[in-house]
Write a structure and sequence with these properties.
By secondary structure, the chain is mainly alpha-helical. It has 10 helices and 2 strands, in the order αααααααββααα. The chain has a two-stranded antiparallel sheet with strand order 1-2. The termini are far apart.
């Protein structure tokens, strides 16, 4: 009798403990990657409705260029074309206004509404950064800097985060001069996270601009 009572008591406690771990999902406003000190993050399995809030034009394709684009987009904006973060960076790949002007885009409203334009902008900026970093890519590719193996895609991703000039400074200082953005994301983390993708189809071009339709 005592064994049965102990068994059912333990079973009841186990069910109660498991049940208490599941909480109802409450939608929150997405503000880039910023989380206030008094906010709580609950790690929950996404529902079907939550999953459908994120749209990807292309499936994950490993270490190809398409995979590179998608990986950057997920990190930057969760793949949302109309996202504007608290610092004013816009779109799927989080462009600043000055960068957009550099590649020939002045109307930010149209930019946010036009997925095709955003994809062109990303490719144009990669072409410019690849030109700016052409010597660094040749010199450092395969080397270890600050504990991370350098690859072309990693450097291009880091340039997207902090600019080609910051990447040059980082490499020449052997990783001591490291840029971090407003959310605390470092060049080193991008070089590591986006290493080994195939970006050979990007042609280095110092004058790359988006051709508006």
């Amino acid at each position: 009798m005592t064994k049965k009572w102990t068994y059912f008591t333990g079973l009841t406690l186990l069910i109660t403990l498991i049940s208490s771990g599941f909480k109802a999902f409450e939608p929150e406003k997405l503000e880039g990657f910023h989380v206030e000190d008094d906010e709580v993050i609950n790690y929950l399995v996404p529902t079907k409705e939550e999953t459908e809030k994120v749209y990807y034009d292309l499936p994950y394709t490993g270490k190809s260029y398409v995979g590179f684009k998608q990986a950057i987009a997920v990190k930057e904006s969760l793949g949302k074309y109309r996202l504007v973060n608290p610092f004013g960076y816009m779109g799927k790949y989080q462009f600043g206004k000055s960068t957009l002007r550099t590649i020939g885009i002045n109307n930010t409203t149209d930019f946010l509404r036009n997925p095709r334009l955003q994809e062109k902008a990303f490719k144009a900026l990669l072409a410019r950064n690849k030109w700016e970093l052409r010597k660094e890519i040749n010199r450092y590719d395969g080397r270890i800097v600050n504990g991370v193996r350098i690859t072309e895609s990693g450097l291009l991703a880091a340039a997207h985060l902090g600019g080609a000039g910051s990447v040059k400074s980082y490499l020449r200082s052997n990783g001591r001069n490291g840029f971090t953005d407003g959310f605390g994301t470092s060049l080193r983390s991008y070089i590591k996270r986006f290493a080994g993708y195939d970006t050979s189809n990007i042609l280095a071009n110092p004058e790359a601009k988006v051709k508006l339709d």
